[in-house]
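#struct-pred

JT: dropping the chains for the assembly here, can someone run the whole complex?
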Amino acid sequence: MTIIESKSESGHDLHLAVEKNSRLDRWIESVSRWLNPILIKESRQSLKSNQFLVTFSLVLAAALFWSFFALAVTPNISESYNSIVLLTGYFWILAFPLMIIVPVWTYWSIVTEQDDNSLELITLSTMKPSQIVSGKFVTALLQIMIYLAVIAPCVCFTYFLRGIDLGHILYGLVFIFLASICLNAVAVFLATCAPNRALQILFLIGLVFICFVSYIYLCVGLSEIDGLIDNLMRAQVNEQNQIQLGLAAGCLAALTYSMVAYFAAVANLTFPANNRSTGIRVALLVQQAIFIGWCWAMAHSLDWSQDGPILMIVMVIVASIHWSIVGSMIVGESGEISQRVRRGLPKTMFAKITASWLMPGPLRGFFFVVSNIWGVGIIAAIFYSVNVGSVPYSMFRPGTADVETGLVMIFLNCGYATIYLGLTSLFAIWLRGRFGFSIPLLTLLWGLAVALFLNFVPIIVLASIGLLNEFELPILGLPSWGLIVAGVGGGRVDWNDMTVLLPFSLMLIAIVVANLVFARRELGLVRVAAPIRVQQEIEEAKKLAEPEPVDIFDDEA
Amino acid sequence: MISSAPAIEMRNVTRMFGHLRAVNDVSFSVGRGEIVGFIGPNGAGKTTSMRILATLDLPTMGDALIDGFSVINDPDRVRRQLGFMPDNYGTYPHMNCEEYLDFFARAYGLLGSDRISALRRVIDFAHLGPLAQKSIRGLSKGMKQRLCLGRALIHDPQVIVLDEPAAGLDPRARIELREMITLLAEQGKSILISSHILSALAEMCHRVVIIEAGSLVAVGSVEEIMASTRQRQSPDALVEVSVRVNDEPEKLLQWLDENPLVENAQLVVDEIRFKAPANPEVHEQMIKELVAANFRISSFVPKQQSLEDVFVEVTKGIVQ
Ligand SMILES: Nc1ncnc2c1ncn2[C@@H]1O[C@H](COP(=O)(O)OP(=O)(O)O)[C@@H](O)[C@H]1O
Ligand SMILES: [Mg+2]
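RK: done, full complex below.
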């Protein structure tokens, strides 16, 4: 790196690091070129603010106070019970800034930048939306690190007390850290969703509520950390696996949803005519793969003959609830497919088949979600039918397990999710036809309403034919469950009684076909060439010839 | 990069907010190295149009091109070419000017020595040197405008869009701003600059575009627009004339009252004002007659049509 004369024409000195000749300054400059500009800006701007100094000093004071208080009140702190209390006290103190202050700060810093147009000025620069979001994110991370550094000495000190080992400390720190990351993702997502002051305040209240509830839950949970770790140590190898898988489930769910929220925030900051959808959809696919992988690991660690079949059904139910909610928002995407997006549409047959569902467009989105629902369904069905033969009992009534029952349940579940989503998609199509736009939030509300309504209908029908006593409350959310129990009798599929399957299947097909008819236009869009001016520029850039990284969804590729 | 496309081209841009047509089928273009004033009363749709040009908003219909790139379909390329200064903007109060500019330089991907030279160029250009270490919080309006102009220039854009940069500036700051903008145009940059006051821009603009209630009402150089408004005037329109005589103003007053072409003659302090036909030939004739009648007149000044008159003439005071 060249160091330039430090006087400018007007004789004025620049005070930036690069102007100085010390080795440290040069090192900072060479590192800072790899840092996110927003991180540098925030560390100059917000970390200098009084507000940060105040919370920082408060956390420090609380930690010191707690240490002295604990030492003074409990004379024999070295007893294991007291030392655990001391440690969890530190967790409560640490989690407060990490899980409440930092996420709220992240939210508020984005919202205020949006309000005073600064964010617009940043989006006009060559920074990508993903850089802007990750800039806010790493700033949050920096703050997390600062708070961790304050509490770390205290926590380390507890390590020398009786009854506390590394497991206690690590579990606590890791959980708080992960929770903070997730809450920051939620904060970033909400901040980029709020278009006006009223919603900004509403979301802020929602965020504070979410943060506070998670804070209380996590800290109460961590107070039980001793018991948890004891269980883990005492359990059989098999059970240990399951406890760990259970913990992993929580962490993975939180982290993958944070990932989706992150990509959704990036999409919110992306120029409307650019491709806003593919990132989110890829994130959703990754999440789905992780979920299936987790189910697979869980199934392996379980005694299949006991809980395996149920696990498969639960997997389908969880997936269809997830996709019904996410899908209701995806079908509410803007229906306008810009020229810019059309330049990036897949060209080859192979790309059309594989990447088409990932491209923007609400109806492509609908089929993306439907393929995912049925993808999980098929995987579950295969697992189920391959393994269930060895199961000696039914999940409903002992001694009556069979393959059909499970398969019908899986089919009905996926079918229901598809029908709900199909109806929501048709509603979104109507919205776009009538008003020219659709809003994900609106279609989500509609989707929830549809699901609620359609869940009451079976109950009313069954009540009218006097079968309601076969019901239990969980049926409310799981229509297929109710149909099996009530309609089929005894938890065993009797094909004579499955008359319900025929109208159900017809409805399913009708709704999918109706969507397909409307999707025709969207799927019929073909790739368009880049404008001449753009081609010119690409040619000239090629002449300057620096091979740029290739983006498969970009027309330049 | 040089291309044959105009620097800025609005093509039938319409932007609706609900039923309000904030911008209504507006088309014009700005050539390379040209300064074009974008004039209109408050609420005319200037900011809306400029936000579309800056890729901060999308047109409901039509398209706009910067250096041949569509603001709808190639916003990334547009952003590389364009420096935008919004009408109101936030600054980061805890930073100083240099840090502020440094942040945007980094945001534009300028690294190491490129960044330093960009900073230096901008600081010198906008005379920010003495302010560089000052906290932004303490800056005056004029200083902030210079800082923001510097920010808009940090990536050395070829096309510059400035939304009401002169609003709220004192006369000295206005002159400085005008000098800077003229200098930019001399460097070959194309500039679109908005204002709700025509006279604020008339001197520096090569052309002006006048917009009202979302629609264009006039495009051309200030002289062309003045000429066309003059043409539109009816032949018997009146103009105010002020005359000074070295002695006996009462006598002149009497003479004027008797002249059938003159209306409303009156003595104001040391000159006589009256209304006469705007036709210059009438004025010539009248001067001859005055001289012939032995009045020692020292000045005869028909009132010039001012820029504000033109503006009022061209716009109709429509409020949407
Ligand atoms: N976001 C918006 N939503 C609704 N109306 C708007 C919005 N922005 C501008 N307008 C309206 O559009 C018209 C043009 O506004 P603007 O472009 O700001 O005018 P100017 O900058 O010429 O003063 C005004 O009537 C204004 O109220
Ligand atoms: Mg304005």
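JT: nice. The pocket of adenosine-5'-diphosphate (ligand 1) is lined by residues B 17, 20, 22, 40, 42-48, 320 (CB under 6 Å). The longest strand of chain B covers residues 20-30.
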